[in-house]
Write a structure and sequence with these properties.
The chain has 126 residues and is mostly beta strands. It is built from no helices and eleven strands. Strands 2, 4, 5, 6, 9, 10 and 11 form a seven-stranded mixed beta sheet that branches. Strands 1-3-8-7 form a four-stranded antiparallel beta sheet, with no helix packed on it.
């Protein structure tokens, strides 16, 4: 199995920045496309960003383009989400996820990701 653990969440003022990290262990991490999702209270979990196995291609939800950046370091078994210019509407629990595949496909679909972390809370105050 693959175990994913997120960290880096917290309380930040609007306009500030946070960097989330996801550390993978277990089965070889480098073969899996990765994604970040978020879920606000009472809302459905939604796609935020995704990155291919090698890190060469990324995708973003329209709501975070130009604001968030996803990256991965396969040597360190980590995936990061750099969040800048944070807004109150970015408040949510953020989840790291991995597909059980060699090639990224349907990157925004929750049901295409087999492994999930426990989530880390991000709260943006005004």
């Amino acid at each position: 199995q693959v175990h994913l653990v997120e960290s880096g969440g917290g309380l930040v003022q609007a306009g500030g920045s946070l960097r989330l990290s996801c550390v993978a262990s277990g089965r070889t991490f480098t073969r899996y496309p990765m994604g970040w999702f978020r879920q606000a209270p009472g809302k459905e979990r939604e796609f935020v960003a995704a990155v291919t196995t090698g890190g060469g291609t990324t995708w973003y939800a329209d709501s975070v383009k130009g604001q968030f950046t996803i990256s991965r370091d396969n040597a360190q078994n980590t995936v990061a989400l750099q969040m800048n210019s944070l807004k109150p509407e970015d408040t949510a629990a953020y989840y790291c996820a991995a597909q059980d595949a060699s090639t990224m496909y349907n990157y925004a679909r929750l049901d295409k990701y087999r492994y999930w972390g426990q989530g880390t809370q991000v709260t943006v105050s005004s």
